Amino acid sequence: MGGDIGTGAERGSAAVATQPESTRRERLRRAFEPALLAVTLTALTAGGIAWLLGAHAVADACWIAGTVVAIVPATWWVIDALRRGRVGVDLIAVLSLVGTLLVGEYVAGALIGVMLASGQALDAAAERRATKDLRALLEHAPHTARRRVGDEVQVVPLGDVVPGDTLVVGPGEVVPVDGWITSELAVLDESVLTGEPMHVQRRTGEAVRSGVVAAGGAFEIHARATAEDSTYAGIVRLAREAAAESAPVVRIADRVAAWFLPLSLTVAGLAWLLSGSATRAVAVLVVATPCPLLLAAPVAIVSGLSRASRLGVVIRSGGALENLGHATTLVMDKTGTLTSGRPAGADIVTAPGGDGAELLRLAASADQLSPHVLAEAIVQEAKMRGLTLSLPTDVAEQAGTGVAATVDGRRVTVGSLPLPADAPGWARAVLSRAALDGAVVAWVTVDGDLAGALLLVDPLRRDAARTLRRLRSAGLDRLVMLTGDRREPAEEIGSVLGLDGVYAEQTPADKVNGVRAERESAVTVMVGDGVNDAPALAAATVGVAMGARGSTASSEAADIVLTTDRLDRLADAMEIARRSRRIAVQSATVGMGLSLVAMGFAAFGYLPPAVGALLQEGIDVAVILNALRALRGDRDRELALPDDTEAMLHRFSAEHDVLRDELSILRDTAQLLASGDRPAAHTALRRVDAFLFDTLLPHEQAEDSELYPALAVPLGSGEATATMSRMHAEIDRLSRRLRTHLAQADAAGGLRPDQCDDLLACLYGLYALLRLHFVQEEENYFTLAPEAERADGSA
Questions:
Q1: Within 10 Å of residue 170's Cβ, how many Cβ atoms?
Q2: Secondary structure of 356-373 in HEC code, one letter for each residue
Q3: I need a labelling partner for 647 at 20 to 30 A (CA). Which of 370, 502, 507, 575 fits?
Q4: What is the similarity comment for this entry (predicted)?
């Protein structure tokens, strides 16, 4: 209470500021708070002891001293508020203190003094607790780095590090700048950036971001940015601004406090005038200080900011947090927001008689030295499949065309290729499939002959559908996508996710106009991750940047930055925002209501000043404790997963990644059958049978016997997984039907013509069923467990 009470948001800013003047003020305030409380409490206690011993004069002297000690800072708070152009409600506290001295209610004055001092200490403690996570970001920032030059390691100021330096990171130290790992292995704690407690392993050549902690042994990195341009520096800049602006609910509190002052003085004056008792007027003033309102709003809002930062969501201001809490429209970019933003291998198609694995190995080997995003995706796909790559020679790259290189004595090209009019049928089928799937085609030639094609897509985020459902349940009633991508893939994603509007082929200017149009009718949130999204983010009511790997421009233009590459953190932030605002309003309303009731009792003489002081203290404590609830999650909405269940989800998710790459064997076999090549289809059907019964069905059976029973408890019942079990039964039925066809073909010495139609139906049906089943499991179950980030920073 008193003084700083009306400036909770300003103190939140001071808590995360680093300027020397702010630091000195903070230290003085921290020293003053316990001192004031100790002096006033000592005076009250000493007076009580003296009164019990019959020394009433001594008791009065002690209580008067405690009252006077409290008057001094309270008077300064009033002067300071007036100097800043604000009518301080601390005037009520000064008047009540002076009033107790004038009417001889010395014990009430001492109680008010303790109330002011304890309210100040409670408020400050709540502020420090609420800003703990924000301050931890600043305290975590390194100031030096270990730079290795030859065999010598030097400790240098962080500002001296330049791209290209070799840096040594010791156990427990913070990675000082963004870079690439040059050691064989690094074990990292990335919780500061991602909010996830699980340690991750990074190997030679993998990216590492500043701010993460070495959780294992020492390792070396190759710096690729200065400290100022690195990930953690941007987060620190945002944290410094996190509470610099008062939230709207805090500003409302200030306005309410302004009219509460004349109301309190009027009630006190009427009580004195109508009863003729100045004591009643003093009692009204004692319970009139609007501490509940002034404490609740700042503490709840800053608590929300702190909780969000703990989950990897940095919010620039309390105003952004509150605006997010009552937004009704969400506008999103597609690439990097709803999709992963990085191409991934969707399919491998070879010329007749070709080997898909060898085709991918040759293409990835040729692409190893290319910085192109598609080349990186091809190399990553080969590594995920465990292929051993060869070092290319005579590498030549032409912008917009692709790469040519010699690999194991063969000349390999990878990239775009104009197909001649007489292109083979399989190549024309690739173009048709790419158009339907929204895929990019990388053609591969070997020694001048067209050997095959790699189809790459930008996959939808696993958590996209679930996150959008959560956002709708949180109050967003309009979801819109603005993307520069082509209309066909954009509309396909919009249909899958159930978006209310899809606008494709948008320029940055178009995006800004689209956001402004939405903002005219509703509070609008815009989410994006690229440089071209920065103007639209700035135009929205609340701009949200996918900052884990997004551009600096988009992060600087945004009000909120997701420091982990997880879209579901936006839903978390929105739930935190709504809950923080609800708690702030709830605390203020209840607290002020109790104070108004107490004023009425005091005006009619039912509440003496001393009792009123004790009652007001209880109200203050209750309000602070209630506002601090914003630090905790909404336990009714949280789903607690046992550690072994979470580990199981990660295990089955990893198996899905492997199985998904193998599903193309079903469609490839069907295409061989449709083309009339029954001998090749017969051979392929044997591979399908081996895949189904040696790999896929054991995976499905393990899910039924291990995963689904484990999920029954956190999800509330086994019915939550019953439909998935039914799909397992259908997958098993189709697999056994295909095995029956294989047995008949083996017995007859080849596939019979009468088998072809049913085989085609089984193969295409099983392919579609498995794709749908995988997506449903990933959206409904696998997203319940936090997903570890990959080396490139994507989830």
A1: 11
A2: HHHHHHHHHHHHCCCCCH
A3: 575
A4: Belongs to the cation transport ATPase (P-type) (TC 3.A.3) family. Type IB subfamily.
Rounded Cα–Cα distance for residues 581 and 301 (Å): 7
Nearest to 689 by CA among 600, 766, 574: 766
Residue 143, number of CB atoms within 10 A of its CB: 10
203 within 8 A of 228, measured Cβ to Cβ? no
The alpha carbon of residue 628 and the mean position of all alpha carbons in its chain are separated, in whole angstroms, by 21
- Alpha helices, DSSP H, located in 276-347: 278-288, 291-310, 318-325
**Residues 6+ positions from 93 with CB-CB distance below 8 Å:** 1, 2, 74, 77, 112, 116, 289
Are 480 and 329 contacting, i.e. CB atoms less than 8 angstroms apart? yes
Task: Say what the pLDDT of residue 407 is.
Answer: 92
Contacts of 545 (CB under 8 A, 6+ apart): 527, 528, 529, 533, 537, 554, 555, 557, 558, 560, 561, 562
Q: Are 374 and 346 in contact (CB under 8 A)?
A: no
Kindly report the number of other CB atoms within 10 A of residue 439's CB atom: 21
Query: Within 10 Å of residue 679's Cβ, how many Cβ atoms?
Result: 10
CA angle, corner 13, sides to 9 and 18, nearest 5?
Answer: 165
Q: For residue 242, what pLDDT is reported?
A: 40
Quote the tokens at residue 230: 């690195």
**Residue numbers in the chain where pLDDT is lower than 70:** 1-32, 81-82, 84-90, 115, 118-140, 191-199, 234-258, 289-298, 345-346, 373, 399-401, 530-534, 547-557, 633-640, 785-795
DSSP 37-54: HHHHHHHHHHHHHHHHTT
Distances (CA, A) of 375 to 105, 350, 459: 83, 18, 16
Alpha helices (H) in 53-188, listed in sequence order: 56-83, 90-103, 106-130, 132-140
254 secondary structure, DSSP code? H
Q: What are phi and psi of 460, to 5 degrees?
A: -65, 140
> Nearest Cα to 588, choosing from 226, 185, 254, 325?
254
Q: Taking a C-beta distance cutoff of 8 angstroms, is the pair 296, 443 a contact? A: no
Q: Note the residue count of the chain.
A: 795
**Which phi-psi region, left, alpha or beta, contains residue 172 (left: φ > 0; alpha: ψ -120 to 50)?**
left
In degrees rounded to 5, what are phi and psi of residue 198?
-70, 135
Strand order in the sheet with 166-169: 152-157, 144-149, 166-169, 219-223, 179-181, 207-208
Q: What is the dihedral of CA 43, 47, 48, 51, to 10 degrees?
A: 180
Q: How many CB atoms lie within 10 A of CB 535?
A: 19
> How many other C-beta atoms are found inside a 10 Å radius of the C-beta of residue 628?
18
| Beta carbons of 279 and 93 less than 8 angstroms apart | no
Q: In this structure, which long-range contacts are made by residues 209-212, counting pairs with CB atoms below 8 Å and at least 24 apart in sequence?
A: 209/175, 209/178, 209/793, 210/174, 210/175, 210/176, 210/177, 210/178, 211/140, 211/141, 211/174, 211/175, 211/235, 212/174, 212/175, 212/188
pLDDT for 731 equals 93
d(CA 287, CA 613): 6
Instruction: Write 492-500 long-range contacts (CB < 8 A, 24+).
Output: 492/438, 493/334, 493/338, 493/339, 493/460, 496/460, 496/465, 497/338, 497/460, 497/464, 497/465, 497/468, 498/468, 499/468
Distance, CA of 135 to CA of 128 (rounded, Å): 9
Enter the DSSP assignment of 450.
Answer: E
List own/partner pairs for 157-162 with CB under 8 A and 24 or more apart.
158/227, 159/226, 159/227, 159/228, 161/223, 161/226, 161/227, 162/223, 162/226
Give the per-residue SS3 of 192-225: HHHCCCCCEEEECCCEECCCCEECCCCEEEEECC
Q: What is the dihedral of CA 213, 215, 221, 225, to 10 degrees?
A: -10
How much is the pLDDT for 296?
A: 65
Q: Tokens representing 7?
A: 């400036």
Tell me how far apart the alpha carbons of residues 534 and 557 are, in angstroms, rounded to a whole number. 6
